[in-house]
Amino acid sequence: MNKSLYSLCLTATVAFIVGILVGSVVLISMSKLRAPGRYQQKMEAVSFFYRTMNALFEGTYSPKEGSVSETFLEKFGEYKPQLGGKCELFIVDSTHNYYECLAFFPSGDIFNLAIIRRDGRWELEGFDLQDWERLWRDILYRYRIKRDSDQLK
């Protein structure tokens, strides 16, 4: 009896482990089938952002390229001297061909921007300066650290 109980437990354990492995492979495959190329598109958008920002900081970007909106160029030109020549991109939200992002700069400034694919080309739009205090209040409210009445202060 002990031998058959041991065999049953061993079989159940092996089946459980194999089920987890097979299930993981199936879930990963299903996610790739649902959104084919989504990861590659995200990498293209991020690469485009950093290439363009590098060109903007070095002064080698040509407005004739048309990959940066006029509004973005104006606002970037206004803030460029204080930004520090580097940035970190954080994607907040995304859909097919659209990425809403925050760009963090060494100066402590945060800018909201969008990376959009139109007619097969990537474009940068936005570049709106974010208010640290407002962002902090929103975070505290979202995670219920401060109540609604405290958020207004």
How would you describe the overall organization of this protein?
This protein is an alpha+beta fold. It has two domains: 1-34; 38-138, Nuclear Transport Factor 2, Chain: A (Roll), CATH 3.10.450. The protein is 54% helix and 22% strand. The protein contains five helices and four strands. It has helices at residues 2-34, 38-58, 70-83, 132-142, 148-151; strands at 88-95, 98-104, 110-118, 121-129. A four-stranded antiparallel β-sheet has the order 1-2-3-4. The longest helix is centred in the first third of the chain and has 33 residues, at 2-34. The protein is elongated and about 80 Å long. The N and C termini lie far apart (71 Å). The model has no long low-confidence stretch (mean pLDDT 88).
| CATH architecture label of the largest domain | Roll
Could you name the CATH class of the largest domain?
A: Alpha Beta
DSSP strand tally: 4
Largest sheet: 4 strands, antiparallel
The topology string of helices and strands comes to HHHEEEEHH
- What Rg do the Cα atoms give? 24 Å
| CATH overall fold name of the largest domain | Nuclear Transport Factor 2, Chain: A
Gross geometry:
elongated
Number of domains: 2
Number of helices: 5
User: Strand order within the widest sheet?
Assistant: 1-2-3-4
Strand content: 15-25%
Q: Which structural class fits the helix and strand makeup?
A: alpha+beta
Proportion of helical residues? 40-55%
**Alpha-carbon distance between the two ends:** 71 Å
